[in-house]
Amino acid sequence: MTSEITLFVNPTAGRGRGAHAAQPAASALRAAGFSVRTVVGEDADDALTRARAAVDGGTGALIAVGGDGLVNLALQAVAGTRTPLGVIAVGTGNDFARALRLPVRDPAAAGALAAGALKGSVTRDIDLGRIGDRWFGTVLASGFDSRVNDRGNRMRLPLGRFKYDLAIVAELAAFRPVPFRLTLDDGSVREVDATLVAVGNGPSYGGGMRICAGADMSDGLFDVTVVGGCSRATLLRVFPRVYKGTHLTHPKVTVYRAARVELAAEAVTAYADGEPVGPLPLVAECVPGAVRVLTR
Description:
The structure is a single chain. It contains eight helices and 15 strands. The chain has helices at 13-31, 44-56, 68-78, 95-99, 107-120, 144-154, 161-174, 232-238, and strands spanning 4-9, 35-39, 62-66, 85-89, 123-131, 134-136, 139-143, 178-184, 189-200, 222-228, 253-258, 260-264, 269-272, 275-279, 282-294. Strands 5, 6, 7, 8, 9, 10, 11, 12, 13, 14 and 15 form an eleven-stranded antiparallel beta sheet that branches. The chain has a four-stranded parallel beta sheet with strand order 2-1-3-4. Keywords: ATP-binding, Kinase, Lipid biosynthesis, Lipid metabolism, Magnesium, Metal-binding, Nucleotide-binding, Phospholipid biosynthesis, Phospholipid metabolism, Transferase.
């Protein structure tokens, strides 16, 4: 393995934490004897081009310094290669890092962990979701949660997670269940009026909401969580349980396990790792061992 490591940095992650986090992470890697090169793109397309060039050039690891959005971008560069991915999680949600039990908002500790993993060749191959040629690491969201994302992304203020709390309140006032059609890899078809459908490679989204609490990133299968049609009162009772994953026992919630799922619904945008993918219908596939990650 080459001793040159690439830090892939989002300077705006976590309201500026990304820029500050790069220095202690780089210091930890240099103290372990690695040469560190930093990549910062002018925009997402430019950043991905630079990250792919680093991977193609044989970098020893691509280490994403930012939140789940930057990790998602990094996955597009390393998925299907043997270049390991490290994560310095300093974003708002950090669900990918949480799923792997990596340090969150502690760049020095995360940098030291990555350096130790590289020194000791401590890596783990995990599954990824794939939609066409696009990869995702945690959850593909559609329905109520994706409409919350739509609304939150349109709001300039407030900043951070509180913006999405306000978006939830606003969407609750207007939301109605959506007719979904799910086709699973065994050929079975489910047609259901659903509040939301979440396809989980990892267990959580939104900064620790364990919507697919049983999802295992190494079993080759998605956990597909379907929340059936709910009144606003029921949804308000069930929603807080998402943070502990106890919503899965509610009678309105069903979980399927599948390696491939096709989702169809009218006027619903899907989000993967918190990033917009596009309107349904779409097909998501779970690809076993698609990325190598630096871990404990």
